[in-house]
Amino acid sequence: MIKLSRSDFLIKPFLKRNNFIAFYQIISTIFPIISIWLILYQIMNQPFSLLIKGFLLIPIIFFLTLFSSRTFSLMHDCGHNSLFSKRKLNRFFGFLLGLINCIPQKSWSIDHAFHHRNNGNWEIYKGPIDVLSLEDYNCLTKKEKIFYKLSRNWIMLFPGGFFYLVLKPRLGLVIIIFNLTKDILEETFIKIKNKKISKLLAIKSRVKPPFSDYGDNFSELCELIINNIVVIIWWILMCNWLGFVFFLSFYSLVLTLSAAILICVFFVQHNYENAYAKNTKNWDIVDGAILGSSNLDIPNWLNWFLADISFHSIHHLSERIPNYNLRACHKANIHLLHNSKFLKLRDFSNCFKYIIWDKKNEKLIPIN
User: Fold this and answer.
1) What is the pLDDT at residue 188?
2) Predicted local distance difference test score (pLDDT) of residue 17
3) How far apart are the first and last CA of the chain?
């Protein structure tokens, strides 16, 4: 197999960002979401039977889920500073798009950037579900092995999606506030004579919850707080508009399904048979992009809702390529991607078997 370098690929012509296209993508995503919510309100206020209302809710849930996924995908582009030409525009719209899915965009983007810097290096980055090495898995008890296998089953996409978007940012803030308050009070009343006041404002060591990507620094903490305030206000307003029980249950369902789609796509793009899974000493960032990222052969309409993230090898080769240029860049370099993995929808379920990293042989393997 010929070793490829980044210079072998035609990338530069596709790096140009277009604010007009970016604004159009934002508008063509946000306006349909608003329209669907207005239609939902009309349906719920019509004298239809519960059966008819339930039947009419099915396409509403379907399209809101897909548009929520597209919103997340555009937020992802903003995090790479690839949607708009200006960093400030990417930050502003990234923050707004994050509000729709109730997730702090800056913290998420920083964590996602770590994934891009280390993709294919399974010694450092364990994938979206924190894959265990074969040695660590063999050290588990029988019950722990069963739990590990069940917790990585595809069915966990749904409770995992609910936790990821609905609960995680809220619980993260609660734990941060608790830890920060506890530590500051302790230092104020017990150690203030031996500590500098400025050290009381140190964030990273004291507020990061064990399960969260949030709270690494003061800026991220501020965004987390603002995100939660706006999201909770939005929830209260929507509860008053549509009803407390209906809105929370309906919106939670939409976010759960949307997150399940996104987590599934992210998973199958990095966990699959013969995926590039090296140790640090043998890892190469270009091979990690081309051989460690699968490309999805899915319908064009679904690609639109995912903002063309299906062309994933090229995206990992250069995350600064805007989503609206990914397809063209992929086609321009298709002759160099014959060793890349291409998956169809029917292949997705098979990917969920590859949840063990065999670091000796540098590959992902299924559980026996």
Assistant:
1) 63
2) 96
3) 30
Q: Which SS3 state, helix, strand or coil, does residue 265 take?
A: helix
Residue 4: Cβ within 10 Å count: 19
| Residue 194 confidence (pLDDT) | 53
To 5 degrees, how large is the angle CA 68–CA 215–CA 120? 70
Q: Which residue in 336, 276, 330 sits closest to 303, CA to CA?
A: 330
The first and second tokens of residue 237, run together, are: 């307003």
Instruction: Enter the tokens of residue 274.
Output: 């013969």
CA distance 290 to 293: 6
Spatial separation of the C-alpha atoms in residues 243 and 250, rounded to whole Å:
10
Question: 307 by DSSP, 3-state: which?
Answer: coil
* pLDDT of 210 strictly over 80: no
Q: Do 27 and 307 meet the contact criterion of CB atoms below 8 Å apart?
A: no
Residues 6+ apart with CB under 8 A from 278: 120, 121, 122, 123, 284, 287, 288, 362
Distance CA 33, CA 258 (A): 13
Can you list the alpha helix ranges (DSSP code H) found in the chain? 19-44, 50-79, 87-100, 105-118, 134-138, 142-151, 157-162, 168-186, 204-207, 218-242, 244-268, 285-291, 300-305, 312-317, 323-332, 348-351
CB 187 within 8 A of CB 195: yes
Q: Reduce the DSSP state of residue 67 to 3 states and report it.
A: helix
The closest alpha carbon to 132, from 354, 353, 357, 360, belongs to 357
Q: Return the residue matching tokens 């078997």.
A: 353
What value does the mean pLDDT take over residues 36-57?
A: 91
Residue 228 has which token pair? 């939660």
